[in-house]
């Protein structure tokens, strides 16, 4: 069974593997929303902050999560690569709507991540 999981600033489709004493073991199947780039404590700032590059959780990456974080998911499931590509494209479109330093830096980070993802998953992003 598939579930929707919000993890930090990303949203994923995960598959439940097993229940454990400390939570539910799940593995990542899809990316719905790519994690937000930058310093989340200083939103929209690029000066005098560490601007974080935030990667999406990898395909089949396993996590132990609280059961309350899992929401049933019943829609179609794309390949991981297609879902990651769609999530990146949505984020890029959103960032391009407003011309500011934060969005420009976020777009640069996404360009770097796309190159890394292309190597990791052997496909274009």
Automatic annotation (TrEMBL):
GO molecular function, one term: kinase activity
Keyword Transferase assigned: yes
Keywords: Kinase, Lipoprotein, Transferase
Family annotation (SMART domains): KapB (SM01298)
Top-rank taxon: Bacteria
The keyword Lipoprotein appears for this protein: yes
Gene3D superfamilies, per the entry: Kinase associated protein B domain
InterPro entries per the UniProt record, alphabetical: KapB (IPR014916), KapB_sf (IPR038080)
Stated name of the protein: Kinase-associated lipoprotein B
Protein species of origin: Macrococcus armenti
């Amino acid at each position: 069974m598939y579930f929707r999981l919000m993890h930090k600033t990303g949203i994923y489709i995960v598959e439940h593997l097993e229940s454990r004493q400390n939570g539910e073991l799940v593995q990542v199947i899809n990316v719905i929303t790519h994690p937000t780039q930058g310093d989340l404590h200083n939103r929209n700032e690029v000066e005098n902050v560490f601007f974080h590059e935030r990667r999406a959780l990898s395909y089949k990456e396993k996590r132990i999560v609280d059961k309350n974080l899992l929401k049933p998911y019943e829609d179609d499931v794309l390949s991981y690569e297609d879902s990651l590509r769609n999530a990146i494209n949505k984020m890029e479109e959103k960032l391009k709507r407003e011309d500011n330093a934060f969005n420009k830096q976020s777009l640069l980070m996404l360009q770097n991540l796309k190159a890394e993802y292309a190597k990791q998953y052997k496909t274009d992003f």
